[in-house]
Amino acid sequence: MFYHRPQCLVMTGYPNSRPALLHLVHAFTKNVGLMICGHVRTGSRRPNFKDLSNDQTRYQRWLLKNETKAFYTPVFAEDMRQGTQYLLQAAGLGRLRPNTLVIGYKSDWRDGDMMNVETYIHMIQ
Fold this sequence. Notes:
Elements: E1 7-11, H1 19-29, E2 34-42, H2 49-65, E3 71-77, H3 80-90, E4 100-103, H4 114-124
Parallel strand pairs: 1-2, 1-4, 2-3
Helix pairs in contact: 3-4
C-alpha cells in the first residue's frame, strides 16, 4: 500500500508574516511530511550572508516556539522566480526533497506592478 507523504516548499517569506499559510500546510504534513518555509530575498545591493544566517537562526527558533515542524530556508536571488528555482533545486535531501510548491494567493494582481504579476505567473508554470 502506498501513502503519499507531502514534502512541501512553502513560499512564506518571513514565517511570522504568513501564519495562515503555515497552519494550512501543517494540517496536511503533520507528522508524515516535510515542510520547508522558503524565503527569497531580492535586491540590487550586494547580498549580506551574515544577515541571512541571523534570519535563519531567528525564524527557526520562531517555528520551534510556535510548535511548527518546519525548516526555514532563506536565499538571495534577482527575482522571486529565480529564488524559487534555487530553493526547489537545493532544499531537502534524498527522499526529503520538496515535491509540492505552495504559494500564497496574489491578491493585488489587478492593482500591482505587472512585472510582479508576470513573475508570479511564471513561478506557477
